[in-house]
User: Fold this.
Amino acid sequence: MSASSTHSFDGVLLDANLITLDGDAGYGVIEQGVLAWRDGLFDFVGTRADWEHRGNADDRPTQHAEGQWVTPGLVDCHTHTFSPGIAPASSSSACKA
Assistant:
């Protein structure tokens, strides 16, 4: 994805290790990556070098991932709603036979 020329992002995440669905192995990794979003959509996903090359280096607001791993666009909704400690007390009776 490429950044538009307006350079007005709602947020920017710098220095993240990005896991993507790009690459020969079915996934890819972008080290020292940058995410930028606008209106709830990713507007830039790429390397820090590409980000700076496009003239975006000073855009704000900015957060620093400090090398943390990020999976842009992947929502892991795996949960067990009736596991102890998660389900409300009133819901646990619905599981009893």
